[in-house]
Amino acid sequence: MMISISVMAQEQSRLDTISQDSIPKNQPRITKGKKFLYDMGNVFGGMGHAYTRPLHWENKQWKQAAGVLAGTALLVLVDKPVNDFMSDIKEDVPDVVRDYGWYYGSPQNNYMLTGAVYLTGLFTNNEKLRRTGVLLISSASAAGLLQQTSKYAFGRARPRSGDSPTTFKPFEANKNYHSFPSGHMILAFTNSYAISKQFKNPWVKGGILLLGSVPGISRLWEGAHWLSDVALSAAISIATVEAIDKYLDSKYEEKYNDDRKKVSWNLMVKSNQIGVLITF
Predict the structure, then answer these.
(1) Is 136 in contact with 194 (CB distance < 8 Å)?
(2) Which residues have C-beta within 8 Å of that of residue 139, sequence separation ≥ 6?
(3) How many domains does the chain have?
(4) Domain region containing 223
(5) What is the value of pTM for the model shown?
(6) Would you call 251 helix, strand, or coil by DSSP?
(7) Choosing a second label site near 54 at 20 to 30 A (CA), which of 6, 10, 27, 106?
(8) Is 137 helix (H, G, I), strand (E, B) or coil?
C-alpha cells in the first residue's frame, strides 16, 4: 500500500514543480491552515453527500441496489458451509497473513494511514495526494459510522456465537450479535478501493483491491463474520467511495472519474456456484 502512495507522490511532484513555476510571483498563496479547514469541510460534506445519495437515486441505481441485496441473500444460503470450511483451514494460514488482516482493518491503524496520506499531500503541496487523503478520510468516516450503527441496529449473530446466520437480535449489547457489517472489511476495502481509483493499470488495481480484501477474509477464519457480511461490506465501501469521489470532483481541480467507466455488478448462479462479479 505504501508503494502505491509513493508512486502517486512521485508522479505528482513533477507536475507540481511545473505548476509552481508558472504561478506569478505576486499571486497570493493560500496558507496550509486555510487548506486544512477547507479540506475538513469537504470531509464532512462528503459524508453528508454519501448518506443522502439514496434520496437522489433513479431507476438504474435502485436496480443495482436490489441486485446487490439479492446476491447477498443468496450468499446467506452458503454462509454456514463456508464458515465451516474457513474454520477448518484457519491453522494452515500463515501468521503474517492473519496478523496483516487484523492490523490493517483496525480503526486506529486505518486512520494512521489515511492521516499520513493527507498530511503528506498537505505539507508537500502535492494536490493529488492531498485530495486522495480527503477522499480516504471522508469515505472511511462515512462507512465506519454506518457500520457501527448497523451492527447495533441489526444485531446479527456472529459465527462464534453458535447461532445460525439467520439469527438477529436488534439492539443487542452483546458483541456476539454485531456480525453485520464487517468493520475490518469496510475500513480496509474502502481504503484500497479509493487508492485503486488513482491507477489505470488493471493489474495494479487488482493487486490493491486484493490487499484490501484480506482483512475481511481473515475475519472469516476467526469466526467473526459470515461470508455475506463481508460481501455486502465491500459493496458498501464501493458505493461510499464512488459517491464521495464524485462530490470531491466539484471541490478540487484534480479529478479521477471518467463517466464512461462504471462499476457493474453481475450476479452469477450456476449449478454448484453462487457469486457476484464486479467489473470496473
Answers:
(1) yes
(2) 46, 50, 190, 191, 194, 237, 240, 241, 244, 245
(3) 1
(4) 58-279
(5) 0.80
(6) coil
(7) 106
(8) helix
